[in-house]
Design a protein that fits this description.
The chain is mainly alpha-helical. Helix content is about 45%, strand content about 5%. The protein has 19 helices and five strands. Helix 2 links the parallel strand 2 and strand 3. The model has no long low-confidence stretch (mean pLDDT about 95). The chain binds flavin-adenine dinucleotide.
């Protein structure tokens, strides 16, 4: 009898275009396993929103496997120990998995190789990190040349269909998903997320199909928070319910500027991974000049910032566009990209609070929280990254709000201001605010403070 083949799942919760599943299915009966190991990713264990999404995503995969008369085995504990235990119980010798690059996954991959025949495959990125390099053979640090080199290297993708799976003689024991308590109970804060998200490959494909109807406007609409103009594929991509190659291939049928820009946005995701491979501690360490330690307001150096982080988190800064974004995030686990930039910039420049506080909050509250993409974008906004916006380029939230026509978005997420019209909705006068808070700091004052803190930190 052929030995069972273990498929070790992580952020690759799909059957189609999943090389580990395809290779395992060709070699023997398949036992798919997900190990919940909360101790592994120190400081970056999944936050609340991701745990909620993970539950939905695993449930969807269980349904997909059931269509193939197969199962998902759930184990909790130390990753390497649990996989070795499963191999002993089932007589399996080979583990198939997609390659992942977060530092804790690289460590676990190394550990597992010492005990079992671990076969790793590419497939969660358009190109594996390191596939394109500069003329001198180094990995890229800057997005634009990375994007151009990647575009030149990508031809087209062969998308693998779902493999047919055969079952082992007996199924090993499994936890149940409910045992893992991934869902919030008291209080149940996930109502808004349930309304917004359906997890799993089928739901991702359905959403993507409707996005294809509007992709020709993506180049402009993606910047307008009041419009559903982006694909909302980010949690589906993060958990690997679809592969980026599936999206890329679907997009090759379209020639519009929107489709072209969409492909380059997908490459931001590859770029972020490429950065993390070079700088695994990017989510906790600034990478430009090292000046920024003296830049952020710090209670240890006598600054009074009591409560300001919380005011930002709760969407009560008095800047409607910032607060709308922070409330959308809290309610749905997602925030529009343009607004992410405005809200992040507000934290680091208007409030002069260390970008790592923002990274942590987003990590806990985003359903698409991603070790690489989150850190790369935070460091881009804060001017501390290897490729980043200059710190001294300070976004003006009120004019951004008008420019990107956020009135409808603000009315939805900041109902206290829904009665306002014209430019007042972007920047209400104090007597128009009712219960809505006054500005935590004036824009001009914040800008001057940020610029002078920057000059001091540099000196
Ligand atoms: P679309 O516009 O439809 O883009 C399609 C896909 O391309 C996205 O799903 C995403 O996978 C990728 N993509 C697009 N823009 C970026 C980008 N700037 N960086 C990396 N990938 C991108 N994205 C995450 O996936 N996880 C994060 O934790 C994350 N944190 C962020 C933090 C900050 C401060 C900022 C400014 C941006 C962050 N982003 C993050 C990037 C971006 O905001 C989201 O990927 C995007 O809003 C997701 O919505 P969408 O799927 O509709 O995007």
């Amino acid at each position: 009898m052929t030995k069972p083949q273990i498929v070790w799942l992580r952020r690759d919760l799909r059957l189609a275009d999943q090389r580990a599943f395809t290779a395992a299915a060709e070699a023997g009966p398949v036992i798919a396993v997900y190990v919940l190991d909360d101790a592994l990713a120190k400081g970056h264990a999944y936050g609340g929103a991701s745990r909620w999404y993970l539950h939905q995503s695993l449930e969807a995969l269980e349904r997909d496997l059931a269509r193939h008369h197969s199962r998902l085995i759930l184990r909790r504990g130390d990753t390497v120990e649990e996989l070795c235990k499963l191999a002993r119980e089932t007589g399996a010798e080979t583990v198939h998995a997609l390659r992942h690059y977060e530092p804790w996954w690289r460590k676990a991959q190394g550990g597992l190789k010492e005990h079992l025949d671990l076969r790793l495959y590419d497939g969660n990125y358009l190109l594996p990190p390191g596939a394109v390099t500069t003329g001198s053979g180094d990995p890229y640090k800057i997005y634009t040349p990375f994007m151009k080199a990647s575009l030149a290297a990508i031809d087209s993708f062969d998308i693998l269909p779902e493999p047919s799976l055969s079952a082992p003689g007996t199924w090993p024991a499994s936890d149940t998903l409910a045992d893992w308590n991934l869902l919030p109970t008291k209080p149940d804060w996930a109502g808004g997320m349930r309304e917004e998200w359906s997890a799993g490959t089928a739901a991702a494909m359905e959403r993507f199909e409707s996005f294809l109807d509007v992709v020709s406007n993506y180049d402009e609409d993606r910047n307008l928070p009041a419009i559903d103009g982006s694909s909302k594929m980010s949690p589906h991509l993060h958990f690997g319910e679809i592969s980026p190659a599936m999206l890329w291939q679907a997009m090759t049928r379209y020639t519009s500027e929107g489709a072209r820009i969409y492909r380059s946005e997908l490459l931001w995701r590859d770029y972020a991974q490429n950065v993390i491979c070079q700088f695994p501690d990017y989510p906790v360490k600034s990478y430009r000049d090292g000046y920024d330690d003296g830049l952020w307001r710090n209670p240890n150096r006598g600054h009074v910032i009591a409560g300001e982080l919380e005011v930002w988190q709760q969407g009560r800064t008095g800047y409607p566009i910032v607060d709308a974004g922070m409330r959308q995030l809290w309610h749905t686990g997602w925030m529009h990209n343009r607004v992410r930039m405005i809200a992040a910039s507000f934290l680091v420049k208007h409030l002069l609070i260390d970008w790592r506080e923002g990274e942590r909050w987003f990590w806990d509250t985003l359903v698409d929280a991603d070790y690489a993409s989150n850190a790369v974008n935070w460091q881009w906004v804060s001017g501390t990254g290897v490729d980043s916006n200059m710190f001294v380029r300070i976004m003006a939230p009120l004019s951004q709000s008008e420019k990107f026509d956020a009135a409808g978005y603000i009315r939805h997420w900041v109902p206290e201001l829904a009665h306002l019209t014209g430019s007042a909705i972007h920047d209400p006068a104090d007597d128009q605010r009712g219960d809505y808070p006054v500005k935590i700091i004036g824009h001009k004052e914040a800008r001057e403070r940020a610029l002078s803190a920057y000059r001091e930190a540099k000196d």
